[in-house]
Amino acid sequence: MTSATRSFPGLAAGALTGIGWGGARRRRMEETAAADAERDRGLIAAAAAGDERALGELYDRHVAAMLGVALRILKVRQDAEDLVHDVFVEAWQRAGDFDAARGSVRSWLLVRTRSRAVDRLRSLEAARRRGLLSRAEHVGEEASAPPIWDGLDRARAKRALDALPEAQRTLVELAYFEGLTCSEMAARCGIPIGTVKSRLSAGMAKLRHEFAETGEGRRASQ
Asked: What's the pLDDT at 208?
């Protein structure tokens, strides 16, 4: 017993040191995040007062994350860059609307980016359906597969989506309107990735069936 006790003090000390180091590292990360958030709040307040340098610093701090969100949804880099520029112009004009009680500056910017990107995507899709844009003009080679209702009118698409169970409809909308991956949807919804895949697959199967039936009905009536 005495021998065993003498054999492990170094290991025990090392383990405790590792635990202590991990805790210290977490504290440093939390302190850094808090300092960044405080800096952002100061910058957005300065931007609201007309300080262009403050807006420029916000741009440098968050443009990469914003561009990532926009690119994931719009697929084309030029479209994404244009949108991020527009969002920063809007942020400059609406900086006084920022409310720290509702979240961080970073989340405020990213939510605006995602919302505007989804709006832009819908506008581009509508323009393409009307023949105002070719597909290549706004989706490029990097684009993922188009939505299954591509080319359908808005009313048919809405009816088909509304007919899905809420759990399936939510995932279809996140996948096609927000461009989220399965892992991102799992994190957003708080469910396992396997559940995301099975619900998304079931929802898409129902949509295919619905579109096939409505398509046959329309052809029969013509």
From this structure: 79
Q: Which of 113, 103, 120 is nearest to 62 (CA)?
A: 113
Residue 171 has pLDDT above 90, yes or no: no
The correct CATH number of 16-143 out of 3.40.630.30, 1.10.1740.10, 3.90.950.10, 3.60.21.10 is 1.10.1740.10
pLDDT greater at residue 169 or residue 175: 169
Q: Does domain 145-222 bear CATH number 3.40.50.300?
A: no
Give me the helices (H) in 75-104, please: 77-94
